[in-house]
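Q: Here's a chain of 249 amino acids. Please give me its 3D structure as C-alpha cells.
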Amino acid sequence: MTESSEPAEERLGSGINGLDALLHGGFSKSRVILVLGEPGTGKTILCSKFLYYGATHQNQKCIFIGMNEPQTRFMKEMKALGMDFGKLQKEDKFRYIDATDIRRIPEQTKVGRIAVGGRELGLVNVLDTIQESLAKFEPQRIAIDSISDLVFRYPNVEERRPVILDLVETLQSSNATTLMTSELLATGDQRVLQPEEYLAEGVLLLRSLRNGVTTIQILKMRGQNVDRHPRPYEITDSGIEVMATEEVY
C-alpha cells in the first residue's frame, strides 16, 4: 500500500505568454506577489493582463487598486492594449478602487481641533476601503499599483515595514491571488533588499538593461519550483511576451 501524496497546489495562469512556463504552470493560489521594476518596464501591464485573463478565461472576479492613476486613465490605456475593463465592469467581473488620494494627504491633519498624523490616518482609510471592497466583491484576483506611493511616504525602514505588513495582511485575508507593484529603488552593487521583498510571498524583478533588452526574473516564489534565470521579454501592442527559453547576454 502506497502513501497518499499531497494534492497539487492550485495555480492561476498569468495570461502572459512565456511567464507561466517560468512559473511551471502559474502563480500559486492565495499568494501575495511583489512585481518590482524600474519605470517603464511594464509592471502595470503585467498586472492588468493577470486580471484580464482571469476574468475572460476563468470567469473570475478581479479588483485593481490604483494608487497613482485615476480609473479613467487606466481604462483608456488598457483598452488600447486590447483589455476592455469597462466591459468587464458592466458584467460585474471587475472593480476599480481609486486610492490616489493617499498621495495628497499632508503629513499632519486635524480631526476636529486635534492634530493627528495625516499619513497614518490616510493609510487607515485606504486599508478600510480595500477591506470593505474585498469583503463585498470577493475577488479571486487583485492587483495593487503601486505601493511606491506608500514607500516614499515612509522612507524610514522601521516605519515602513509595519505599514507594508498591514497592507499585505489585508490582501492575504481575502484569499485572493494578489500582484502588487513597486519601483526598484536601486540596481547593481547599490541594490539593497526592500522590506516589501521580505514580506511578499513571491518577487518578480523587471529590469531594463543598457542594451535596450528588458528582462524578467523570479527572485523568489515561496513553496514553488520555478525558473530563476533572467529571461528577456517584450512589451507589445497586446501586452507582454516572455521568451522563456532564451538566455540574456
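Q: Can you summarize the key feature?
A: The radius of gyration is 18 Å.
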